[in-house]
Amino acid sequence: MALFSSLDGLMESISDRPMTARDQSDRLPPGKLQLLVLRVLASGAMHGHGISRRLAALSSDWLQLEEGSLYPCLYRMEKRGWIESKPGVSENNRRARFYSLTGTGRKQLLADRESWRKFSSVVERVLKEA
Amino acid sequence: VWRSIWRWHLRRRRFSEEWEFHRELLSTELRAAGLNSKEVRQAVKRRLGPRSRWRRDALREIDGSWRDFLNALDLSGLAASCWFLPAMLALAIVLLLICDPFRARLLSSLVTQPREQVPLRRIVIVPADFARFTWSLLLCFEFMWLNDHRRSWRMAAYAVLVFVLLAAFGVAVWVAGIQLWIAIAWPSDMLQGVCILDFLFAYAGGCLLAAKWWRRDVSARCPVCLRRARAPIVRGSVTTCCSTRLKSSRYAPQATAFSPKTTGTGPSVKVQSSGKTWPPDAKPPRAR
After folding, report:
1. What burial class does residue B15 get, using C-beta atoms within 10 Å of its C-beta: 0-12 exposed, 13-18 middle, 19+ buried?
2. How far is CA B262 from each of CA B29, B240, B271, B278, rounded to the nearest angstrom?
């Protein structure tokens, strides 16, 4: 009985806490983190920590990434030429690397956005009519 | 190569710097929110996730992994250098001396006791300087070959140096093998005899293969720069990668008749006396 009660408690705590990276990795479609990062960077150059803060603020802390996962994603996008990075000085006078969108990145953002809109509208239609 | 390795190092450092920066800002935020240092540490770990995993993924994206380090080393370029082979052979000899617990005896049998013999009970006597004899014999044959195929004094010096190091390594391997053979407590004389005979034949075969490999290496090198040519130009009997310099060299080929036999490790371009190239679709080599 003690085991069951502790399991119940655990389930409650899981359902109450915000979505973690492990939860969202099952739900966030692949490649959509890149779309979110592109969108965030469209508003201006930012460092990695700034991007994760902005993502958390825009999603009202619902989308909580493991912030370390941002860096492989940023490097991948940089390799593809969607973003570029430059060394700079942060608000607390520390050396940091600032990421900004390139022309290719802007085009990619538009394309990804369109594709996401189509995908979500199709899913929505199916859910309504099924 | 050094520049490539330095860039690889910078790429690796980039992730660490960004991670540290992120971690410090996060810690400052959490501390400002009223968490104590233990809670801050735990929260930072939870929010950033496993460092090793993200580091591995990130380094793979920016070509900072160990595999990329090997690429940065440009091993094929290093192996093509004329210093690579002598250095490797010298290193192998030194390693053998370091690893051998009876290194003093090994050195003395290499230098001062050439006539030491190892008795093989009741079957045969195997001289410990069998290796010396084998390598001396090979040395005579290979020097005759080198005299016929000599293309420059540099090439001859390189070939002699490599062969001498190869022979020294070969003799050291033989002596170490004999030492091992003596040290083992054999259950029977027959087994001991069979093993030494096997070792002897394997060693003789290995020496022949090493000599063949040496010839191939010498043939594949450019007589001007001594590098192993990646895209060698075969001019008559000469393989080179420095076409312009070879023209002014006294070892420039006399005959440029087409010969279907190719030498070298990479794709080759054959230049005929008519100026046509072989293979037909290959571009003629451009003078530097």
Report:
1. buried
2. 69, 12, 12, 11
Tell whether ipTM is more than 0.85.
no
B22/B26 Cα distance (integer angstroms) = 6
From chain B residues 166-185, the ones with a CB under 8 A of any chain A CB are none
| DSSP secondary structure code for residue A18 in this structure | P
pLDDT at B249 over 50: no
B74 touches chain A (CB under 8 A): no
Backbone angles phi, psi at B235, to 5 degrees: -115, 105
In DSSP terms, B120 is beta-bridged to B124
Q: In angstroms, how far is CA A81 from the centroid of its own chain?
A: 19
pLDDT in tens, B164-215: 999 989 988 888 888 788 778 888 878 888 888 888 899 999 999 999 999 9
- Taking phi over 0 as left and psi of -120 to 50 as alpha, with beta for the rest, B249 belongs to beta
Best mutation target, B47, B52, B63, to test chain A (most A CBs within 10 A): B47
More confident residue, B214 or B130: B214
Please tell me which residue of chain A has the smallest CA distance to B21: A96
Q: How many residues are there in chain A?
A: 130
* Minimal Cβ distance to A67: which of B17, B48, B58: B48
* 8-state DSSP, B113: -
Burial per residue of B81-100, b for 16 or more beta-carbon CB atoms within 10 angstroms, e otherwise: ebeebbeebeebbeebeeeb
Task: Record the pTM.
Answer: 0.53
Number of H helices, E strands in chain A: 6, 2
Paired with A96 in beta bridges are: A88
| Four-point Cα dihedral B153, B154, B156, B158, nearest 10 | 160
